[in-house]
Amino acid sequence: MPRSIEHIVFDIGKVLIHYDPNIPFSRIIPDAEERRWFFENVCTHEWNLQQDRGRDWAVAEAELIQKFPECAEHIRAFRKHWPEMVSHAYDGSVAILEKLIADGRDVTMLTNFAADTFVEARHIFPFLNAPRGVTVSGEIFLIKPDVEIYHMHANNFGLDPAHTLFIDDAPANVEGAKAAGWQAVHFSGAEKLRADLAGFGISV
Length: 204
Known about the structure:
Blueprint lengths: L6 E4 L11 H7 L3 H10 L3 H8 L4 H11 L4 H9 L1 H4 L5 H12 L3 E6 L3 H10 L9 E3 H4 L6 H11 L6 E5 L2 H9 L3 E4 L3 H10 L5
Parallel strand pairs: 1-2, 1-4, 2-3, 4-5
Helix pairs in contact: 4-5
């Protein structure tokens, strides 16, 4: 029998809002093979993740341009066109978030996000201001699935880990939450999330 849930914590990217660098780069680098090479070798997932860890974009760009000077324009385009990458919200999961808050549930967010792009995201998607608060990895130099980020979030927001439910699209982050003593579910769509919440006795 699952424990009662007093706190619900949402991830953001690919849970509440879409994220895909291919959206602007399909225009910037039209050739699919060239674009694939660029993301696999230049502006890689790991490179971008360092901004989520708190690295400044100017530093990130300078280091990469030194290594790939011929790609300088495309490297700078990554941050410049970032707003296009977060093209839309997931209306189904946003509706769940808003219903939980309206029902008086304690809702916070825990996200791997660069500090400055998160400021932009809050302007683009005002519902990100609705929960009680948020932990942004780029502001604290910790990143999921490091167990310490879950401990920090719980401490900062007064959460009881055993009665906290975390929602994330990345299995590794779900496991990180469980390692911190939280309950956690893998997000793959709004309907599954409704079912998962129902399993904890939460109707939305």
